[in-house]
Amino acid sequence: MDIRVQKKEIRSAIRELKRCVDQAWMLQASDSIMSQLESLHLFKVADTILLYHALPDEVQTAAFLDRWYQTKRILIPLVSGDDLILKVYSPDKVVPGYKGIPEPSDDAETVGPSEVELAVIPGVAFDRTCNRLGRGKGFYDRLIPSLRCPLVGLGFDFQIVEQVPVEIFDRKLDMVITQNNLFYR
């Protein structure tokens, strides 16, 4: 089977599963996943963390952004024209962004990729060897190669797929956290 057809079928199956998932379950699973992240030593010792506001049906991060920004510097990746920039998150410096998701305003502090100590990456799907599958958020595909820090993916158990042929834009992370499993590279 052609790799593009196979990946398209996987993404289609994931979308269908998402539609069937109850929102209350998703919030409960998100809490479990984020609690596992908080318990990791690499999270505890990192002061500067990259984390995006989740899109619908992804592991929910909004409550954790608001909880963590007081003790950690949370960076949000943004695309501005041809430039990829990282802005410091603070609830008093946000504007509606893509699909209405809050993102830092123009006057929020800008930080370079070299300052990121931990990148937390929501995704549509991961395989069991920690590849993030599919293009998804384009800024991650552009940003990940420039990061020299641990890369942790967040995904629900039904987003973990059996190993499939990996395309050049898929990115291998250090680990993926799901509600019931922790997968290491």
Task: Write a compact overview of the structure shown.
This protein is an alpha/beta fold. Helices cover 29% and strands 28% of the residues. The protein has five helices and 14 strands.
Provide key terms for this protein.
185 residues, alpha/beta, Rossmann fold, eight-stranded mixed sheet, 5 helices, 29% helix, 28% strand
Plain-language structure description:
With 185 residues, this protein is α/β, with parallel strands linked by helices. The chain has a single domain (3-184), classed as NagB/RpiA/CoA transferase-like (Rossmann fold, 3-Layer(aba) Sandwich). The chain contains five helices and 14 strands. The strands form three sheets. Strands 6-3-2-1-7-10-13-14 form an eight-stranded mixed beta sheet. A four-stranded mixed beta sheet has the order 11-8-9-12, with helices on one face. Strands 4-5 form a two-stranded antiparallel sheet. A hairpin with a 3-residue loop joins strand 8 (125-127) and strand 9 (131-133). The longest helix is centred in the first third of the chain and has 18 residues, at 3-20. The protein is globular. The mean pLDDT is 84.
